[in-house]
Design a protein that fits this description.
Elements lengths: L5 E4 L3 H12 L4 E4 L13 H7 L4 E4 L10 E4 L14 H13 L5 E4 L18 E4 L8 H6 L4 E5 L8 H8 L5 E5 H32 L3 H9 L20 H16 L4 H14 L1 H11 L6 E5 L14 H8 L4 E5 L14 H5 L4 E4 L4 H4 L3 H7 L4 E3 L7 H6 L3 E3 L5
Parallel strand pairs: 1-2, 1-4, 2-3, 4-5, 5-6, 7-8, 9-10, 9-11, 11-12, 12-13
Antiparallel strand pairs: 6-7
Helix pairs in contact: 1-2, 6-8, 6-9, 8-9
Length: 409
């Protein structure tokens, strides 16, 4: 059997990284996007992979090009509003367009995240329709697309073997394949993210206690990771709440179905409240230790993206902090994001020049390489809010900086 031709519809973050990974696994890939101009995606290793796989990747704005594919993935990012509600109309429209050119024996797979019940409601023969749980994590998207832990595949009937073309494609990645009914697969992604949010909420809640009682959360984490019930890969790093849109969307979905089915989702609502509380940590702290006493102080902020290695600012804690600081004098830097030509400066050191305090709100790798002595030389003040411990604590204190970190007194 010859290798199947794989199609991806929607060259946004999910589609582009998935298409690159499929090509890197040796498949001929048709990458369709409605517009000839693809969105600019910032992702480690992506540009290099696209260049290396150029002969296997066929980018097109013509729907008809998908007609030669054995599998076509609906892989466009799903837009969400500030409350985490998904707008599924663009996805439905894309599916309708792709169906018109789908080959007679080709399979359609929904890869973008949709709520339980979405896939089964689509008008396509069930033996040709599948849902696959995406593995997208911003900043690690290509690596996770290339090296997934497992594939979760939603089927009309999971007892029926997967079609040869689909199994041949998935087998090339060398990981377990877990078939299940459509609704189970759609809910599995939400279940995974709920478990991640619960771990984040535990870390944030207890790290905040550490800050008030003299304990050190970084000392506690190894004890948890050596517990087999929790494990080495548990999400235990405290942060500035959940952001990016994906986790928020899943929590909103759980709350929606809970209200519809008359179940209890109060713990999910508590996770959201905890997230909002921790998101505001930097604004609360800098007001207390500096701005309440000196409202004209100059604040430098490193990082505007919601996390490192991405251009996305969806629900960014940094932007939320900027909004809460109101009329404060700000000097901003981010390696990728620009929100104001007047305020966003070219280098991190330029941003801290003459500042009374520095807030490191996105843990970009570039910031870890900056010498603390250079920060001290450029700044007027010595206060540094470093929630993610980007700077080496010992070196920062030795240089004379007053460091404030999540989970540390």
């Amino acid at each position: 059997m010859s290798r199947p031709v794989i199609g991806f519809a929607g060259m946004t973050h999910l589609g582009l990284n998935s298409a690159a990974a499929a090509a890197a696994r040796g498949f001929d890939v048709v990458a369709y996007h409605p517009s000839p101009d693809r969105p600019k995606i910032v992702e480690p290793g992506l540009d290099e992979c696209l260049q290396q796989q150029a002969k296997r990747l066929h980018f097109t704005s013509s729907l008809d090009a998908l007609s030669r594919c054995d599998l076509v993935y609906i892989a466009a990012d799903v837009p969400t509003d500030d409350a985490g509600k998904s707008d599924l109309e663009p996805i439905r429209s894309l599916i309708a367009s792709v169906k018109r050119v789908l080959g007679d024996k080709a399979l359609l797979l929904v890869l973008c995240q949709v709520p339980p019940g979405f896939t089964r409601a689509l008008d396509l023969a069930p033996e040709r329709l599948y849902y696959q749980v995406e593995t997208l994590v911003f900043g690690r998207a290509l690596d996770r697309a290339l090296n997934p832990e497992r594939f979760i595949v939603g089927c009309a009937d999971p007892s029926v073997p997967l079609p040869g073309s689909l199994k041949a494609f998935l087998d090339a990645f060398g990981c377990p394949i877990l078939p299940m009914r459509y609704e189970s697969a759609e809910l599995a992604k939400i279940a995974i993210n709920c478990c991640l949010v619960s771990s984040i909420s535990v870390a944030n809640t207890l790290a905040e206690l550490c800050e008030g009682m003299g304990a050190d959360w970084s000392e506690i984490v190894p004890a948890l990771k050596h517990d087999k019930r929790i494990g080495q890969h548990a999400y235990l790093a405290p942060g500035l709440g959940i952001a990016g849109g994906n986790l928020e969307r899943d929590l909103a979905t759980v709350i929606h179905f809970s209200e519809e089915l008359k179940t209890d989702a109060s713990v999910v609502k508590a996770w959201l409240a905890n997230s909002r509380h921790r998101r505001d940590w930097a604004a609360r702290r800098i007001k207390k230790i500096l701005l309440d006493k000196n409202p004209t102080a100059v604040i430098a902020i490193w990082g505007l993206a919601y996390k490192e290695n991405t251009h996305s600012t969806k629900n960014s804690p940094s932007l939320a902090t900027i909004e809460q600081l109101g009329g404060a004098k700000l000097r901003l830097h981010d390696p990728v994001v620009r929100i104001s030509k007047e305020k966003t400066l070219e280098t991190p050191i330029e941003a801290v020049q003459g500042a009374d305090a520095l807030l490191i709100l996105t843990p970009w790798p570039q910031y870890r390489e900056i010498d603390c002595a250079d920060i001290v030389k450029a700044m007027r003040g010595r206060i540094v809010l470093d929630p993610y411990a980007v700077l080496n604590p010992g070196k920062a204190k030795a240089a004379g900086l007053q460091i404030h970190t999540l989970g540390h007194a």
